[in-house]
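Retro notes (design track)

What went well: tokenization of the new backbones is finally stable.
What didn't: we kept losing track of which sequence belonged to which structure.
Fix going forward: every design gets posted as structure first, then sequence, in one message. First example under the new rule, 539 residues:
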């Protein structure tokens, strides 16, 4: 009968440990020899998972038709959930928004708006000198001439000053303004500020944002009411047609906030002589959304101005800046109505540079100049109506009062009445129609409906994937090594093969032949089979 002999030797130590510690060490030794516990298999995980249907489809138990049907139901529900989730994600990534107007809670208006007006005729004919006509030939279409009325190719005049020409030859408000009233109080030309636009010298009422005039009452007659003489006898004769030639008579008006510069050639409306024009305004405070829902421009929060020459950002200021950059690149100068300290373009290339500004604003967001709308904007909705003036009786009175004939009064006089419809403002706000919270709520509802899962269920699945992956990585990169000797607590367990390798005793053949000495006598079973089933043991 085969005999396996294991020798346990307890070595003496100075500090013997308790028996409980030795038993615990032996258990640790056996656990380390067996290796780390294997991760849970799929059946065990499925039986404990909170995902509905997974335990019946993949849990422990015999395979059959019932398990197959549960697996098909689980896969179908999972596919339906993924389809619904993809649709919700696509809807969210379109960044939908809606516009909400809240007229039920109107806010009081901040103040009366700025009103800018320009005479459509840029230069008064009687104020032009021979030098002005010579320098403005390309702009006005008038032929240059000397004082005798003859054209002279060799005429020489000093270099022109465009600002001086506009100031001197433009229509003067003191001559045009015949009457002015604001909220029942008289006003004059001193209440207007000079501003330059594409129409030349213009005038703005209530231009200072620091001292904006309030409007106390809404309705007709409670705002700005002015009577103007457009001075048609001073309009330039049309000798030849240019891009700046105007066939109209009247004024251009723009109603805007004090922080926004006038952009009257694009945003203004016309007022004709011989009529009294009523402009009913309604303040609107607009709030737009930034990216990704919209394209508005959020405030930077910096103290310095965002656009050079302007105290605040606006679309009009941005467009004027773009026009200026285009003119500087093309003509190396700027026009009078553009901000900056650069040299002003001379009159002989003025019209060429003015035409080039139109090319700098094309193309929308893909063009050379894109001016986004500010996220917070104040604008004024307008309703315009008019009646003919003067009447027959008032024409005679006005003719006597201003020492003009009735025909002149009908062809040159107009009345402009700008007022608030009501002293409340409308709030219009863009809001995200489908936000992140709505997306998460819809995804959670679809997940609970189809597969009965939650965020914690997803964490369970991720934890199981991590456990399996980490175990496979450890097996791939760390090969375990079986220790030759393990000892704890002074007890040493030696295996038979280790004893054979480490023992100084010779092998059986050498013992029989040579009879080498050893610590213990050699033991050999006389009836053992040939081939050495029973090995020598020496300790």
């Amino acid at each position: 009968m085969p005999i396996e002999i294991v020798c346990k030797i307890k070595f003496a130590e100075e500090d013997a440990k308790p028996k409980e510690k030795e038993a615990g060490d032996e258990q640790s030794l056996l656990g380390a020899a067996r290796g780390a516990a294997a991760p849970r298999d799929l059946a065990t995980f499925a039986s404990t998972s909170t995902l509905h249907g997974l335990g019946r489809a993949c849990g422990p138990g015999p395979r059959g038709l019932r398990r197959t049907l549960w697996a098909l139901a689980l896969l179908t529900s999972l596919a339906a959930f993924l389809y619904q989730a993809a649709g919700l994600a696509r809807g969210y990534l379109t960044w939908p928004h809606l516009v909400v107007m809240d007229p039920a809670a109107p806010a009081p208006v901040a103040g009366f708006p700025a009103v800018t007006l320009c005479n459509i005729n840029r230069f008064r004919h009687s104020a032009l000198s021979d030098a002005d006509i010579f320098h403005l030939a390309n702009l006005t279409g008038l032929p240059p001439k000397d004082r005798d009325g003859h054209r002279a190719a060799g005429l020489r005049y000093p270099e022109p000053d465009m600002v001086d020409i506009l100031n001197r030859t433009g229509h003067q408000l003191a001559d045009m303004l015949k009457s002015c009233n604001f909220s029942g109080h008289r006003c004059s030309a001193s209440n207007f500020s000079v501003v330059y636009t594409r129409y030349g010298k213009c005038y703005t009422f209530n231009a200072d944002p620091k001292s904006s005039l309030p409007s106390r009452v809404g309705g007709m007659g409670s705002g700005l009411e002015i009577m103007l003489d457009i001075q048609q006898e001073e309009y330039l004769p049309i000798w030849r047609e240019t891009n700046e030639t105007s066939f109209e008579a009247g004024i251009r008006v723009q109603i805007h906030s004090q922080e926004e510069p006038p952009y009257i050639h694009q945003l203004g409306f016309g007022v004709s002589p011989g009529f009294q024009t009523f402009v009913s305004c309604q303040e609107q405070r607009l709030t737009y959304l930034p990216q990704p829902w919209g394209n508005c421009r959020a405030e930077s929060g910096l103290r310095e101005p965002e656009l050079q020459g302007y105290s605040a950002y606006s679309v009009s200021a941005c467009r004027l800046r773009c026009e200026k950059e285009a003119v500087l690149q093309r003509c190396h100068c700027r026009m009078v109505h553009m901000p900056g300290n650069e040299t002003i373009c001379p009159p002989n290339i003025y019209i060429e540079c003015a035409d080039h500004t139109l090319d700098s604003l094309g193309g929308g967001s893909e063009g050379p100049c894109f001016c986004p709308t500010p996220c917070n904007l104040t604008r004024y909705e307008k309703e315009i109506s008019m009646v003919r003036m003067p009447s027959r009786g008032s024409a005679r009175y006005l003719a006597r009062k201003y020492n003009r004939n009735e025909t002149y009064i009908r062809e040159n006089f107009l009345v402009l009445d700008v007022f608030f419809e009501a002293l409340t403002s409308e709030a219009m706000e863009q809001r995200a129609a489908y936000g992140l919270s709505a997306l998460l709520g819809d995804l959670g509802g679809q997940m609970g409906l189809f597969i009965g899962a939650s965020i914690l269920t997803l964490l369970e699945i991720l934890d199981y994937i991590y456990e399996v992956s980490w175990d496979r990585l450890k097996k791939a990169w760390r090969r375990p090594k079986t220790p030759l000797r393990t000892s704890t607590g002074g007890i040493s367990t030696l295996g038979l093969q280790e004893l054979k390798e480490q023992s100084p005793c010779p092998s059986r053949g050498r013992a029989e032949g040579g009879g080498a000495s050893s610590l213990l006598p050699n033991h050999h079973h006389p009836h053992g089979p040939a081939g050495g089933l029973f090995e020598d043991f020496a300790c």
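Added context from the reviewer: The first strand starts at residue 8 and ends at 10.
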